Amino acid sequence: MELKELYQEIILDHGKNPRNKGVCSNYNFDAQAHNPLCGDKVHIYLNLDKDKKLVDISFEGEGCAISLASASILTEILKGKDLNLTQKISEEILGMIKNKEKITINSLTEDQITTISSLAGVQEFPMRVKCATMVWHTFLSALNKKN
Amino acid sequence: MEVENIKKEFPIFKQKINGKPLVYLDSANSSQKPKSVIDRISSFYETEFSNVGRSVHSLAVKATNRFENTRDRVQKYLNAKHREEIIFTKGATEAINLVASSFGKKFINSGDEILITELEHHSNYVPWHFIRQEKGAKVKFAEVNLNGEVEIDEIKKNITNKTKIIAITHISNVTGAITPIKKIVDIAQEKNIPVLIDGTQGAPHLTLDMQDLGCDFYAISCHKMYGPNGLGILYAKKKWLDLLPPYQGGGGMINEVYKDSISYADTPTKFEAGTMQTAEVVAFSESINFIEKIGMKNISSHENKILEYGLEQLKKNNSINIIGEPKERGSVLCFTIKGIHPHDIATILDDEGVAVRAGHHCCQILHEKLGLPATTRASIGIYNTKEDIDILCKAIDHCKKVFQI
């Protein structure tokens, strides 16, 4: 169990300076979740245009470095992408965090893959897996609400 | 028994956690178990086990005697007037649920008030919420002051002629405040209002005398008293137990059962439905032995010494904010570190072998009042030393290093 695998530079950076924090203007879908075990909260706001493109996304919430970083990374990676792709990315990232599955989507840049991979550090810390996964589940449930 | 070498009595301390010696600062959550308690569970299963209070064979007699012996031990330990005033439960949570349900059904009606405090653990609020919903009663919260304690005047202020019961914690599991329970019981008795004390954090650290205290109900969590998991105790005055309806129905708690009518067993059996935690109850005698060998006064003074040292050391660190400043504090040290979330602190401390708890500690009402989503809690038990506090402080420095603050 390596602590530095969990608290990588990318995680600490996103945790301290989360991107896209707040309520984005003109959001048309949202979803929230709460982890009663630790009190972490997340609320995500999506602006989908008529071509099913995620033109804007933001989040509000409170929680540990891992959960804030995960939310921040989610908004950064998914912003501007088509709905179908955002769903596929989210599912693959959950598979990577929970089951060490590889990311197969080839439209992601190398930098984006590095950023996403930093979330895999929770694998060795079972009590912290939910910190990383909650926001991705929340995003998928926002999409479900839309459908 | 020497307090200095007490860690030796607890087998769990033989192992390393993440390559480091275990520094266990989570006793308010659950205490570790001495070897005598662990051995008693296994010797009971090896040589004396049978179900209790039912069969007539030799093992059943032996097991029943051992089980009832613990009731006698607990009666003496708590200085309860009658042995029938000791009810075994699944935990302090079930003890409070029993009172809320049975007392609530019989004595609480629409518009009546249940007085609790903002310090309460969810287990001393949610059961009363059920009665609020069922009966249309009101749950009133005595407020905490800035030091994280509930003052006696705040209790007085909230008592009305509709107050049917006062349910209050003995020691807060967050601020560590020791509640003036004796004064509260005295005030309540003048007005004929029964008092339930949630003794989950009180019983492991303070000397108890039920006849002197005079409370009507006192809930105990045995696993926080160096005892087996899955066991709690409800102390209740016999007059209440005779009056209250049973909590759960099943085997053992009945007198006669017919198709059109059922009569119940006498107290305490009336409240002990189904097969009880036999080995756990039997082994709890060893927990009392352990506590009595050291002496509760010696336990309290040792823990206070470590607590004071902990407060002193943590206060030296500018980035640490200690939660609550009660005049009387019992064995709990909650804190926050600027810029690091409690969950991250707990994970990094664990990497250094230090076990603490992070979160709202089942006290969401209090955390909302404090304006904090979560805190980190170090709680003290008999086995903790000043060295444990030093290791905690070093581990906190390590947290700051990881987070570059």
Account of the protein in words:
The complex is a heterodimer of chains A (147) and B (405). Chain A is α+β, with helices and mostly antiparallel strands and 147 residues long. Chain A has one domain (3-146): Sufe protein. Chain: A (Alpha-Beta Complex). Chain A is 47% helix and 17% strand. In chain A, a hairpin with a 5-residue loop joins β2 and β3. Chain B has 405 residues and is α/β, with parallel strands linked by helices. In chain B, the strands form five sheets. Chain B has a seven-stranded mixed beta sheet with strand order 4-10-9-8-7-5-6, with helices on both faces. The longest helix of chain B is centred in the first third of the chain and has 21 residues, at 58-78. The mean pLDDT of chain B is 96. Chain A binds chain B through residues 1, 3, 6-7, 12, 16, 37-41, 62-66, 125, 127-128, 131, and chain B through 18, 339-344, 347-348, 351, 358-360, 364, 367, 373-374, 402-404.
Cα Rg of chain A: 14 Å
The CATH topology annotation of chain A reads as Sufe protein. Chain: A
- Proportion of residues in extended strands of chain B: 15-25%
Q: How many helix segments of chain A?
A: 6
**Beta strand count of chain A:** 3
N-end to C-end Cα span of chain B: 44 Å
Which strand order does the major sheet of chain B show?
4-10-9-8-7-5-6
What spatial form of chain B do the alpha-carbon principal axes imply? Answer: globular
Largest interface: A-B, 20 and 20 residues
Question: How many domain regions of chain B?
Answer: 2
**Multimerization status:** heterodimer
* Shape-level CATH architecture of the largest domain in chain B: 3-Layer(aba) Sandwich
Largest sheet of chain B: 7 strands, mixed
